[in-house]
Design goal:
Blueprint: E1 6-7, E2 16-19, H1 30-45, E3 49-52, E4 60-61, H2 66-70, H3 72-83, E5 87-91, E6 96-97, E7 108-110, E8 115-119, E9 122-126, H4 136-145, H5 148-156, H6 159-177, H7 184-198, E10 202-205, E11 213-218, E12 221-227, E13 235-240, E14 243-248
Parallel strand pairs: 1-14, 2-3, 3-5, 4-6, 5-7, 9-10, 10-12
Antiparallel strand pairs: 2-13, 8-9, 11-12, 13-14
Length: 249
């Protein structure tokens, strides 16, 4: 990873800001306050594109208004950012469900397959990253938990119960993740494959809570694979004047 691209200083303006894997666990979570600070900073910077690249919340269920109201401060700040002229996108992570059902018109929502964005003749593919694993068991589990039947059942459960139950489950799962081994070579290989299939110039991803930053040569072009670091050290990726920077907050 090229450490020369680490910085604590935001540029005066930016074409793109990407945040990922914040895992906010409630409105009073310090990470929620830090995200609000990032949104306010983006507003001052006159950012053109602001993308929340999945797992922003430790759990979010969009079929009912409970979670949108719970995180009302964040959504109000996002609305202010949109009113400043910024385009806002939310890419679902594996901790978010039914984002397309939000009653908001100031942000666009996408599934984990993400979206591509064109900036100054440069195409950047942005995905959450969980679908890069190519694990049939995970895909089967994902299909079940995201089915309309499962979501309908979840919508009938008292949402406060759902909120606390899912946070408990996420905490339990995260304790197991402490012993998980990241196969870095495999992740980079999957990222390269994802980039080539997208025909984009660069790829930004999250999910793995690791600050990947690799440059490859593909069809004679230099292309970047870069991921957002874990929000144990809050950071974001900024793209401006065809340059990437990893900014720690």
């Amino acid at each position: 990873m090229d450490s020369t691209n680490w910085t604590f200083q935001f540029p005066e303006s930016a074409d793109l800001v990407v945040a990922s894997d914040i895992h906010i666990r409630g409105p009073e979570d310090p990470r929620a306050k830090t995200l609000i600070l990032l949104i306010e900073t983006a507003c001052k910077m006159k950012v053109k594109h602001f993308i929340l690249n999945g797992d922003i919340f430790d759990f979010f269920f969009g079929w009912t208004p409970f979670f949108e109201n719970l995180y009302g401060d964040i959504f109000r700040k996002l609305k202010q950012l949109a009113e400043s002229g910024c385009s806002i996108d939310f890419i679902e992570g594996n901790h978010e469900f039914g984002m397309d059902r939000l009653k908001v018109n100031y942000l666009k929502t996408w599934d984990s397959f993400g979206k591509s964005i064109r900036i100054e003749n440069t195409t950047i593919q942005i995905i959450h990253g969980d679908l890069m694993k190519y694990d049939w068991k995970y895909f089967a589990f994902r299909r079940i938990v995201r089915s309309n039947i499962t979501n309908l059942i979840a919508s009938l459960v008292p949402q406060n119960w759902l909120y606390h139950a899912t946070l408990w489950f996420a905490s339990t799962s995260r304790k197991k993740d402490k012993y998980r081994t990241l196969h870095h070579d495999r992740i980079i290989a999957n990222a390269v494959d994802t980039l080539r299939k997208s025909s984009a110039d660069h790829l930004i991803f999250g999910h793995f809570h690791h600050p990947y930053d690799e440059t490859i040569t593909d069809q004679g072009k230099s292309k970047r694979l870069i991921s957002v670091d874990s929000w144990d050290r809050p950071s974001c990726i900024v793209f401006h004047e065809r340059q990437f920077k990893r900014i720690y907050l």
